Amino acid sequence: MTETVPPPPNTTSEKVEQNGTDVPAAKKVKQPKKFVRKYRPKAVDPTAPMGVLQYEIKDILKGHLLTENDIQNDMKEVLNDSAAQDIYHRVVDDVEISRLSSNGDGIALIPHPVNSDKKQIVLIPFGFPGDTVSIKVFKTHPLYAESDLLKVTKQAPVRNEDLILCKYFGKCSGCQYQNVEYETQLEFKRQTIVNAYKYFAPLSSAGKLPEVGKTQSSPLQYTYRTKLTPHFDVPRRIPADYVRPSFGFGLKGRPQWRETEGGSQLIVDIESCPIGTEIVNKGFKNERARYVEEFKKYKKGSTVLLRENTTKVEENGLFDTGNASTDAENKTSEIETEIEGIKYVKTCVTEPRQVVREVVNNYTFEFSAGEFFQNNNLILPIVTDYVKQNLQIKGSGPDEPNYLVDAYCGSGLFSITCLSGVSKVIGVEVSADSVKFAERNAKLNGIENAKFIVGKAEEIFKNIDTPANRTAVILDPPRKGCDHVFLNQLAAYCPAKIVYISCNVHSQARDIEWFLNETTEGARYAVESLKGFDFFPQTHHVESVAVLTLN
Ligand SMILES: C[S@@+](CC[C@H](N)C(=O)[O-])C[C@H]1O[C@@H](n2cnc3c(N)ncnc32)[C@H](O)[C@@H]1O
């Protein structure tokens, strides 16, 4: 007799021979493996904002006698359990903000959502130390969480909402400090420099660093930015009920603390930007109008370049601005202006390869609109004068020759503005296009004793034939700072003076720590001064200048 045995649940039937007859046999079904999401930390540069946050967290833990274990979030739970997500991603009231991050966000310690013995560290954009606020935690990381600001229930003394000029402030990621008096903004930036040296130059800090000076203000606190880059994102396939995508700058979370315009897409829809110069805003209006008209022609997103261009009006009243942003009547938008009694016309260039001009301390600079050039024209005479003054080598009499090396020279801004009284300048720059412009700018300004070479900064040491004790070196690297190869060679060359300019004070502090403590001649130098320059009012950014002198 044969019998067919029904397979138990979760089995499949497979025929096996039984008593000479094929009969189905029970076999366990393989359960599909439950997919478990794992937290994969991304590698971060320690001197980038998320890297600096790790130092800020350590500082907070030390101040509250806590360990990392006391603030840890269970990422396995958060990533895999929707109930846990609801517990973590919650509204929290009565949050007292205790400090400001280097990125301009408030930081607070709040109760842990799962374990009452623990705490959580939370970032609160648009929050200030002294605020009491309600927040919505929306993202969790192992050692901190991110939140949106919902309501300010008690205002920090530094907060003054009457100062806000922009209707998008509190949503747009561009500015963080519009509701803070300018003097306080400058002090925040000074503190960023103090903290950067505390975190990244601990050896040097041990009595070896001067007090960080007062941050140099910008002559204009609004309408100063000579370059803006609004963007938009268009989907590949355009649906029938397609709504025009926003044109502007990134949205900073989903804050609710103030009523703002600009829609709810990931890009805030903006018509103008109060930190941009007048002509850049005319370009903004033109290019936005063009985009609104033509957006259906685009297949994907793009960034629009808006770069101020300052052209001299010739004695016959003629001037050539090249291609520039035009209005609805196809007329080039222009603004007439005067610098030191000379007439100029300002236009807004959108073509990255087009040559544009700027005037700094009566020197004219030309460069490609899409290449690097400093963005706050009015602070440049102050900065370049400060750098020039600090390049002076002690004891140099009128007959003693001085030399200048400009590492990371771009299109020659510091080489040219700091050259008077110097016998020779040699600049190095990795971008061949910028070097072409550095040479052109030297010629344009009647300078004959400048030489520029294309290459990595360390290439300069093969080309230097000037005596080190009569040579001053300017460093102005990109955000990531200098590498050890360059710093070791700089120390071996041993110039009389070094002026290090940086848009990332954290990498500057790290480099100075290495230079002073790890290079052959570094210990012979003293940091003479540290000072911030406010190239970007209303934002958290600060430019830092460090002066090093050979003892
Ligand atoms: C912050 S910008 C400064 C430019 C110039 N000093 C100015 O103020 O206009 C940094 C410059 O360093 C250049 N650069 C980047 N890496 C470099 C390297 N390894 N060696 C030389 N130049 C480099 C970039 O092309 C850029 O022009």
Q: What would the average pLDDT be, to the nearest integer?
A: 91
* Uncertain ranges: 1-23
Helix and strand content put the structural class at alpha+beta
Looking at the structure, the CATH topology of the domain at 181-220 and 376-551 is Rossmann fold
Q: Over the alpha carbons, how many angstroms does the gyration radius reach?
A: 29 Å
Top CATH class of the domain at 181-220 and 376-551:
Alpha Beta
Write the layout of secondary structure elements.
Layout: E1 11-18, E2 21-28, H1 49-63, H2 75-80, H3 82-88, E3 91-100, E4 106-111, E5 119-124, E6 132-140, E7 145-154, H4 182-200, H5 202-205, E8 227-228, E9 231-232, E10 248-250, E11 267-269, H6 278-294, E12 302-303, E13 306-312, E14 335-339, E15 342-349, E16 355-360, E17 363-368, H7 380-390, E18 403-407, H8 413-417, E19 424-429, H9 432-444, E20 450-454, H10 460-463, E21 471-475, H11 484-493, E22 497-502, H12 505-518, E23 525-533, E24 543-550
Parallel strand pairs: 5-7, 18-19, 18-21, 19-20, 21-22
Antiparallel strand pairs: 1-2, 3-4, 3-6, 4-5, 6-7, 8-13, 9-12, 10-11, 13-15, 14-15, 16-17, 22-24, 23-24
Bound molecules: S-adenosylmethionine.
S-adenosylmethionine (SAM) binds next to helix 8 and strand 19.
